[in-house]
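Entry type: protein chain
Record version: 2
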Amino acid sequence: MIVSKKLLTRTAIAAALAGLVPVGVAHAQEASTAAAGRTMSESEIRQFYDRYIAALNAHEFDRMPEFIADTVSLNGNPGTRADVMAVLKGDAVKVPDLKWRLDGIVIDGNRIGARLTNFGKPVQAWLGVPATGKSFEVTEYAVYTVSNGRFIHMAAIQTIGR
């Protein structure tokens, strides 16, 4: 298991997964992963995630097919890659300098738990933050499942600090 900055633990990711991934989805994901063939190593998953964060920070949202499966579970609900791309593009319109900083990561098999800080200056209201011209930070706790080299489950909880 890879752990960065001791911000997350195996227990924390298990608790987060239990709270964010419905039981049926978790079992379906495990079956999907088992049938998918080769599993990515922890090192490969970390490199994959670092590339994903770099694409987000470059606002290269058209690269999302590299990272997200055609269909994906979003906070336990069915969704598509196009849904994720639309949200990201909308976020970048509201916060043109939006960035993601990875503060901690745990990799457990094909699951990722991450603590990120999102920051920028909104030019439109975003996540309840008014467009005041001031910078803000959002702490994000995210949980992902990877299968066939792409996210098949994405869930996040965000807390806003100003």
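Comment: Residues 64 and 79 are 14 Å apart (CA to CA).
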